[in-house]
Amino acid sequence: MAAASNPVDVHVGNRIRLRRTLLGMSQERLGNALGLTFQQVQKYERGRNRVGASRLYDLACVLDVPVAFFFDGLPDRGMEHDGSADEVAGMAEPAACVAPIPAMKEEGRGEMRADDLALLSRRETIDLVRAYYGIEDSGTRRRVLDLVRSMGA
């Protein structure tokens, strides 16, 4: 039985997929730009393979985003300094904990949760957003938004 993917790797993979699909880029095209097969891109996007620092930098260049984009939405994992031996010499902050990520942000504060990110990564959502922003008239866009909100309530 294979080990479960690290939640951070899954999050980074979801962000890669989100940006790639927002750009209308196929896995094959992204792979070609990076010198990879589409299968390798697929493994990155699913979080099955960890993305190294240099590859993450290359992805940021090809996808035209800052490297930090791939970590947006991750919760802060700061720890209280307790003077333990976990601190790295010369570093002001203690070593980061390696714990599972419960949710992206606290629910009820209007901030993104893990399931929200999954919804944003769906092709249907991306198609809807593209179509919405394809409406040139801002008044019409606003009416469409009001209509969709009223139908969802």
Q: What is the mean pLDDT?
A: 78
Helix content: 40-55%
Structural class: mainly alpha
Q: Write down the secondary-structure element order.
A: HHHHHHH
Taking the sheet with the most strands, its summary is: none
Q: Hey, roughly how much beta strand do the residues contain? A: under 5%
Low-confidence stretches: 79-110
How far from one another are the termini?
A: 43 Å
The number of helical elements comes to 7
Short précis:
With about 150 residues, the chain is mainly alpha-helical.
Describe this structure in words.
- The chain has 153 residues and is an all-alpha fold.
- It has 7 helices and no strands.
- It has helices at residues 7-22, 27-34, 38-46, 53-63, 114-120, 123-133, 138-152.
- The longest helix has 16 residues, at 7-22.
- The N and C termini lie far apart (43 Å).
